[in-house]
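Annotated sample (chain length 360).
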Amino acid sequence: MIPRGSGHYPILDVYRAIASFAVLLYHIAGSLQIPSMASHAYVAVDFFFLLSGFVIDRAYGTRLEDRSFKLEFLLPRFVRLWPMIVLGTFVGAVVSIGSLLRGHTLDLSQMALVLAFGVLLLPFGRMPLTASIFPFDGPLWSLFYEVVANAAYCFVFRWLRIPVLSILVVLFAIGLVVVSLEKGDLELGARTGEISVGLLRVGFSFFAGVFMSRIGTASSVGGTTAITSVAGLIGVLFVPLPQHAIYDVACILVVFPLLIWRSAETAVPPGWRRACSFVGELSYPLYALHYPITRIFFYFQDTLALGKTALAFSIVLEVITCLGAAYVATKFVDQPVRNRLGSMVERIRSPRVAPLAGRT
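Output written by the structure step:
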């Protein structure tokens, strides 16, 4: 069993990679109007929130008993997320400039404002022709909610005992059910006017993850269980069924927590740990950078009116490009910048604080 206080769960790295890849395919399919490709991958965001709450509480929970640890908790979270936020925003800005130059009025002051808000991860930028709260890099919306959840967790930690967590999770779950039935699905939170729903989504999944961290997971996990859990996640995200409120609620409230409970403690053989770590490390840059790249590909796919064979080839090239960009960003931006920022943070942190935990 992986002990409390550990910040790394190899099987969860695999889950992150699957979820990030599903989101990539979902955005490609959405642009090209391919309804059967990763049609439910938008709920992968809720899975990310659940993983985040579980791993953060396992890694930091005991240390947050010390009230002076709050800043020392928040700074590493900033260091972990910010480099890709900045890179994704700048790449998205370049792509947006190209889009606006193709027949739309270019308002440089507005572009600069949206860029500043994006770099600061603030959902207040507005751009024409889009309702996204992060126009330059759409997927940043979920990172905004994750940061909000992290801050809330930090500042109300001393009240987050199991009875309080139980009430919070139940209330958020009720809210999700009501909203999903009203709206028809839970593909909500990324656009203007949907912030309250986004808070519901992160509120349930993040604090459900914290709750699961407190009550514990299955302590003995065999390889067969891990394989079936991975297959289950793939099936849930990629099943070619229409979007539906009941399906979304079932995934978020039942299936995802069950997957974490069943397999989080999986002991991965040493020979596979490096591979798990690699795909897990790649998942965040892939998530943060893919959206602007898919916009470039869609422009050519749409303009050239590609046939089925050429379109299929372009999709394969698009996926390879996104994976390659994620790898380059990991090696030459994310890791070096995080190391530099981490060193700066370490100089102002207490010597007793352990090294930074892995990303959640």
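Annotation: The chain has one domain: 10-348.
Annotation: Residues 353-360 have pLDDT under 50 and may be disordered.
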